[in-house]
Write a structure and sequence with these properties.
160 residues, mainly alpha, 2 strands, 8% strand, elongated, disordered C terminus
Length: 160
């Protein structure tokens, strides 16, 4: 596959717009290029492979995000509501992912957290375990896939 064709495949996974991808990959006649490129099995296969990889990464990221919602701590949220003055820099440092709503009322600050039970239910649904009877291997696999996708390569020292 030529470099420009590889770039076209990459851009297709970014934009999902074949004309724009062909134009930005450097084809002078993007409509014609798209027509010709889409007829090549190698090009279609590369786009399909890239899309499957992206889907796998998004699925693993979603599972890890749900895990954090289900089992994450609330310490930073408590720190947030107990501070008298909150600076922008403070907000960057606090992990408030488990917070679904913050409201200032006449009685003070009201904080609503994400529903942990719903997050656990969704995790079970995504990982295919029923009623908590799974052995947890699906979650571990999803977390390891996510770490792999993000570029973490464990060593023998990294015990699970």
């Amino acid at each position: 596959m030529k470099p420009r064709e590889k770039e076209f495949c990459r851009l297709m996974t970014v934009y999902a717009d074949p004309i724009r991808a062909a134009r930005e990959a450097g084809y002078k006649e993007p409509e014609r290029a798209w027509s010709e490129l889409s007829a090549q099995e190698e090009i279609v296969g590369e786009i399909r492979r890239r899309c499957e990889n992206i889907r796998s990464i998004f699925e693993s990221t979603a599972v890890c995000g749900l895990y954090r919602l289900a089992y994450g701590g609330v310490n930073d949220a408590l720190t947030f509501i107990n501070r008298e003055i909150i600076l922008k820099e403070d907000l960057k440092e606090l992990d408030l992912r488990n917070v679904s709503e913050i409201k200032k009322t006449d009685k003070g600050i009201e904080v609503k957290f994400c529903d942990r039970i719903k997050a656990i239910d969704k995790l079970q649904e995504l990982l295919g375990s029923s009623g908590g009877q799974g052995n947890g291997a699906g979650l571990l696999d999803a977390i390891l896939l996510s770490a792999e996708a993000l570029g973490h390569h464990g060593s023998d020292d990294d015990a699970v």
